[in-house]
Amino acid sequence: MIIDSALVNRWFQKRRGLALGILGAAFSSGQLIFTPNIMSLNSHQGWRDATLFIVLF
């Protein structure tokens, strides 16, 4: 997240706050989607398949 914020600060001058807000929303949405799916995969298939899923995506 720190590297991404540094890149946003360099690339966006006028709408820096909007870009940081979109970046934060994207991270939160990703956690909202992937965390339950990974936990379900871990519960049903085992930790090896869940780890393989994390590595591939």
Describe this structure in words.
The chain has 57 residues and is mainly α. It has one domain. 88% of the residues lie in helices and 0% in strands. It contains three helices and no strands. α1 packs antiparallel against α2 and α2 packs antiparallel against α3. The longest helix is centred in the middle third of the chain and has 30 residues. The two termini are 18 Å apart.
Write a concise synopsis of the structure shown:
The protein contains 3 helices and no strands. The chain has 57 residues and is mostly helical.
Beta-strand content bin: under 5%
Q: Which H/E pattern describes the elements?
A: HHH
Tally of alpha and pi helices: 3
How many β strands by DSSP?
0
Uncertain segments of ≥5 residues (pLDDT<50)?
Answer: none
Structural class: mainly alpha
Principal-axis shape: elongated
Main beta sheet = none
Helical percentage: over 70%
Notable characteristics:
57 residues; mainly alpha; 3 helices; elongated
Topology of helices and strands:
Elements: H1 2-11, H2 16-45, H3 47-56
Helix pairs in contact: 1-2, 2-3
